[in-house]
Specification:
By secondary structure, the chain is an alpha/beta fold. It has 2 domains: 108 residues, OB fold (Dihydrolipoamide Acetyltransferase, E2P); 128 residues, Succinyl-CoA synthetase domains (Rossmann fold, 3-Layer(aba) Sandwich). Helix content is 44%, strand content 24%. It contains 10 helices and 10 strands. It has a 5-stranded mixed barrel with strand order 1-2-3-5-4. A 5-stranded parallel beta sheet has the order 7-6-8-9-10. β8, α7 and β9 form a beta-alpha-beta unit. The termini are far apart.
Length: 333
């Protein structure tokens, strides 16, 4: 079937991307109910920007989110500034952005509605883990200094996997790296991560495990705050390093891990020493040892020379004493 036939069959049904987006924009922005809408939800992430504050409002039970923006001119008028974990009642209007194919809520007012459900659940879970001692520094195991085999749990499509592989190869050539793939975002991520850790355990070759993913919105990192993932890390028979998100992110998985790094690359750097550094340290030890041996040898030679001189003087003294005795004996005769 050629293109002219297709066009003749679907000419009335085909619409361009711009045409479809314009239609959606007209439906949403011309709806009187959406000109002034009240929305209640929990702030799951926020980002301060010179133009204003961008944040995400979520409904934890329905697993729905909406992007919001409070422009700089409006911030001072808000009763409550958006903070992660707080539940807010938002007044705003819906706007469509055709270039990104997205819609967001332009915020006019924000009223406090107490602590959010997701934040409350996370706080209670954290308190339970603390009571069990899962975050105690005493239970954290030392990392192996020269691991021969390391396992990595992350998504095969994630940039984190490439960063970790490259860093490990550069720092410690010859290292055996076992990859246990897992989804690190979405509804299936929790079971996938737990299964990936269990896969490493059953394999039995790895001496260290890295659990990693790149940064993202707080709702994207929710699986690392789940009880099943946290307990899988705590019960793992080998030390675990986490490299989750960016420096601003901290999950319950980070708290229970034996070592927590701010990024996947930093986790890989912590997992193995740098071969160049090891070589430089070895050369420094050789130099220090050579200097110590040389110093001891020179000191011993000096001492030996001193003892030889004393021996020569002692032999001369004995000879003089014998001559004196002989002369005295002659005089007595």
């Amino acid at each position: 079937m050629d293109s002219s036939t297709i066009n003749s069959l679907f000419s009335e049904a085909i619409v361009s991307v711009a045409g479809l987006t314009d239609y959606i924009q007209e439906l949403l922005e011309e709806d009187n109910q959406l000109h002034r809408v009240w929305v209640i939800g929990e702030v799951s992430s926020s980002n301060h920007h010179p133009k204003g504050m961008f944040f995400t409002l979520q409904d934890p039970d329905a697993k729905a989110t909406i992007q919001c923006v409070a422009w700089r001119s409006q911030l001072s008028k808000l009763v409550q500034l958006p903070e992660v974990g707080e539940q807010l009642i938002i007044l705003g209007s819906l706007r469509v952005y055709p270039q990104r194919g997205q819609y967001q809520l332009n915020v006019w007012q924000a009223l406090p509605a107490g602590e959010g459900l997701q934040a409350l659940r996370s706080r209670q879970l954290r308190q339970r883990f603390e009571a069990e001692g899962l975050f105690d520094p005493q239970r954290k195991r030392p990392l192996p200094i020269h691991p021969e085999t390391i396992a990595v749990v992350t998504s095969p499509q994630a940039a984190a996997w490439g960063d970790i592989k490259r860093t490990l190869q550069q720092r410690y050539p010859g290292l055996r790296v076992l990859f246990s793939p897992a989804q690190v975002q979405g509804e299936l991520a929790i079971a996938s991560i737990v299964n990936a850790i269990d896969r490493v355990e059953r394999d039995g070759r790895a001496k260290l495990l890295i659990l990693a993913r790149g940064g993202g919105a707080s709702e994207d990192l929710a699986c690392f705050n789940d009880e099943r993932v946290v307990r899988a890390i705590a019960q793992c028979s080998i030390p675990v390093i986490t490299g989750i998100g960016h420096q601003r992110d901290e999950s319950l998985a980070d708290l229970v891990a034996d070592y927590s790094a701010h990024t996947p690359t930093a986790a890989a750097e912590q997992a193995v020493p740098e071969l160049i550094t090891l070589y430089a340290e070895h050369q420094q030890r050789r130099t220090t040892l050579y200097q110590a041996v040389t110093q001891i040898t020179e000191a011993s030679c000096h001492k030996l020379h001193h003892l030889r001189t004393r021996l020569r003087h002692l032999a001369l003294d004995q000879q003089l004493h014998q001559e004196q005795n002989a002369i005295a004996f002659q005089h007595q005769r």
